[in-house]
Design a protein that fits this description.
Layout lengths: L5 H6 L2 H15 L10 E5 L3 E5 L8 E6 L10 E8 L3 E3 L2 E3 L5 E7 L5 E9 L6 E8 L5 E6 L3 E4 L9 E5 L10 E8 L3 E3 L2 E3 L5 E3 L2 E3 L5 E9 L9 E8 L5 E4 L4 E5 L10 E4 L10 E6 L4 E3 L2 E3 L5 E2 L3 E3 L5 E9 L2 E10 L3 E8 L3 E4 L9 E6 L10 E7 L3 E3 L10 E3 L2 E3 L5 E9 L9 E8 L3 E8 L2 E5 L9 E6 L9 E6 L5 E3 L2 E3 L5 E3 L2 E3 L5 E9 L2 E11 L5 E4 L8 E2 L9 E5 L10 E8 L4 E3 L2 E3 L5 E3 L2 E3 L5 E9 L9 E7 L5 E4 L6 E3 L11 E5 L10 E6 L4 E3 L3 E3 L5 E3 L3 E3 L4 E9 L9 E7 L1
Parallel strand pairs: 2-9, 11-19, 21-29, 31-38, 40-48, 50-58, 60-68
Antiparallel strand pairs: 1-3, 3-7, 4-6, 4-8, 5-7, 8-9, 10-12, 12-16, 13-15, 13-18, 14-17, 18-19, 20-22, 22-26, 23-25, 23-28, 24-27, 28-29, 30-32, 32-35, 33-37, 34-36, 37-38, 39-41, 41-45, 42-44, 42-47, 43-46, 47-48, 49-51, 51-55, 52-54, 52-57, 53-56, 57-58, 59-61, 61-65, 62-64, 62-67, 63-66, ...
Length: about 750
Amino acid sequence: MQRLPSLFRSSLPRAAATALTGLLLAACNGDDGPRPPSSVAAVGSTSFTGTVGELVGDPLVVKVTDDRGAALGGIVVTFTVAEGGGSTTPAVDTTDNTGAASTRWRLGGTTGQQRVSAAISGVTTQVNFTASASAGAPASVAIQAGDNQSAVAGAAVTTAPAVLVRDRFNNPVSGTSVFFSVSAGGGSVAGAGATTNASGVATVGSWTLGATTGANRLTALVVANGVTSNPVTFNATATAGAPAALQAQGSTSLTATAGALVSPVPSVRVVDAAGNPVSNVTVTFTASSGSTVVGASKVTNSNGLATPDSWQVGASLGNYTLTASVGTVTTVFTATARAGAATSLSIFAGNNQTASVGRTLPIDPAVRITDALGNPIAGQEVVFEVTSGGGSALVRRPVTDANGVATVGAWTLGETPGANTLRATATGLSLAGNPATFSATATAGAPASMSASGGTSLSGTAGSLVAVAPSVVVRDNRGNPVSGVTVTFTPGLNSGSVTDGTALTNALGVATVGSWRLGNTAGAQTLTASLANLPDVVFTATASAGVAAGVQVVGASILSDLPVNSFVTALPTVRVVDSNGNPVSGATVTFEVVDGAGAALSGATKTTGVDGLAQLTSWRLGTAAGLYSVQVLVAGLTLTSEVTWSVSGTALAAAQVAVSSGSLLSQAATASAAVATVPVVRVTDTYGNAVVGATVTFTVGTGTSTVGSPSVTTDALGFASVGTWTMGAGSGARTLIATVTGSGISGNPITFTATVP
């Protein structure tokens, strides 16, 4: 079938054209008649890329066929925009004689996936064409972020400025170059050349504001033509940074009259690290001790200035400080307080002294001149004159020093005991207390000798008070008693103690110790009287021991074990002492046996010597083993606890062995069984004392038998047991021999017999 010319098709109404196409198809199909469309399929690509608002590069083409695959012309194909907007031209097309129909697709304004469907009547399937739409050319630029910020001068803003680039459909445009540059305020940028990302955003690396406070601007220029609002401008305000310094406004070294206000009042400017004034911060002004600040807390004004209301220095001369601080940043002002006019004169030192006639006073008289606040006045002349008592003054016209003090060189009293006076006058001044008068008293001469006055020959019991308290008399070089001088009484080593050991001489020149208690040690004791620059006076007393009060054991009281009937070598010895531990001579000491029969003592009664010692002459133990004890008695002394020496008498070597009581030398037994009575022997010494630790050997003699303990040592009572003695099989007599190791032992060995019937 031939396709109708397009001009002809276009001149017919669409319904008529469709009917005519059907007639032509029927004619061409012969007797079979026209076949309906069966499918529609794309001719060429169904997937495209393009720019929003623009035609895709190629037409959209479909082919309509019948169920035999034959192309059908004259079929109406409808091209419908299914996604993304845009349009198709034409929206409806009729297939030509090849079965093809086509349209042009202009993409919509939305980026991303777009779709057009091609469909024919009577066929359920349709053809879908898709296109990925990208943004168009940059058409506008706008601020995305970072406008109208503030930051410290010289610092970067918190949010890096960013712009958003869009095409004419307001789609973000990626890959567009944007150049950022500082247009006002100084400062700098990093990453000035930026490229928009997939969201159309381009961000400067960083924007550092200028070092001076105030307005800053940054321009962002899109490198493209035809972009509206290009370039855009970011604004920022550079603010002062943290306080870095306090700049004194004027001198920091000031002066003022003591107690007065400092003028001018100190002032500071608070600046940041770049020197910009910092406003609206609190400056604290702290005055040093003695001075006062009013308005101690001030807020800086727009120029960073802060000034307290006033600063008053203290009443004393010297330096005062006012510290201005903001956090740890400080500035210190110093004000030196000067004295005012002189107003008074007063005695400073050296009044009401006492010295020997003709002697110079120890403290040179001095006066002090001060202002109304008590501050010293330097450089003022003072005249000193002796007005009574004779004597003389050295350096009579001194000048006050930095402390306002004027001192006479020396004041020597007259030769007559009694009152002396000295007058000090500040010339040419009308001052309170001017002139001032000093008084002094002339006394007798200095001590020249000291000798014993009482208590020179003393004796007593150790630890007791002497009967007469020692005393000394002090005289000057003319032999006159000197009163009011201090004498120190000091006991010697182990010489007891004193009360009122520091005494003043009375009107007769005599100084007496309060009391002297002798030391606890018998023998010579001393007490020394001392006065500066004079020889010491030494008192001596003889201390004797008191009555017997206790007994001390000399050596050990528990002695080493000894064999019976032997002499004790470490003989009991005691020392008799008084209550202070001093040895008492002439005391009667008696030693007596309190444990152990048969013990013998010699020299049991003794008299202590000068060392307080008494020793027993001899002590012999009895023949029975056991404990032996001796105790001591002292005539006239009741002891609170016994003084006792103890020694254990031990047995001699084994001398005899015998069958133990209860054991049998001969007994009946049962074959293959132990005897009923176990064989036991006892070993003793010459005196019948049990011998401990002797070795006894039990040996089977005739017949067959076994023993439990073939070798045994004697126990604390001298016994040794075989343990068990078991008969062998069969009848007859069996013997067991007990032998004690050693020689000359009576009854050794012993033979036990057991008979099995």
